[in-house]
Amino acid sequence: MVGRSWATQLRASILLEKRRACGGWPGTLSEARAHVAVSLLPWLKTHGQPVVTSQQCEGAARLVYASARSAWMENREAEEGP
């Protein structure tokens, strides 16, 4: 959910700037880590999981990144021809 939301928000932001949402996924693993820290960790805390290891955070970031990338690739615009 966090990854798909990130991809949707990023796509909307790009379109608002009158740019095309095409090509490869523009997000980074560092950004995925930030999304985990801001979105997922607080959610876990409110649902009874206050302690998360750094290894779990890294795994979550990689899953968020993969989910966002997948959502981006499913919804990106086609590249223009030469």
Keywords summarizing the entry:
82 residues; 3 helices; mainly alpha; elongated
Q: Could you give the topology of this structure?
A:
Blueprint: H1 2-16, H2 29-46, H3 54-75
Helix pairs in contact: 1-3, 2-3
What is the structure about, briefly put?
67% of the residues lie in helices and 0% in strands. The protein contains three helices and no strands. The relative contact order is 0.26.
How large is the radius of gyration? 15 Å
Class by alpha and beta content:
mainly alpha
Strand fraction equals under 5%
Helix content: 55-70%
SSE ordering: HHH
The gross shape turns out to be: elongated
- How many DSSP helices? 3
Distance between the termini: 36 Å
Number of domains: 1
Low-confidence stretches: none
Could you tell me the mean pLDDT?
91
Main beta sheet: none
Number of strands: 0
Q: What this model shows, in words?
A:
The protein is mostly helical. It has one domain (2-75). Helix content is 67%, strand content 0%. It has three helices and no strands. α2 packs across α3 (54-75). It is elongated, with a radius of gyration of 15 Å. The N and C termini lie far apart (36 Å). The model has no long low-confidence stretch (mean pLDDT 91).
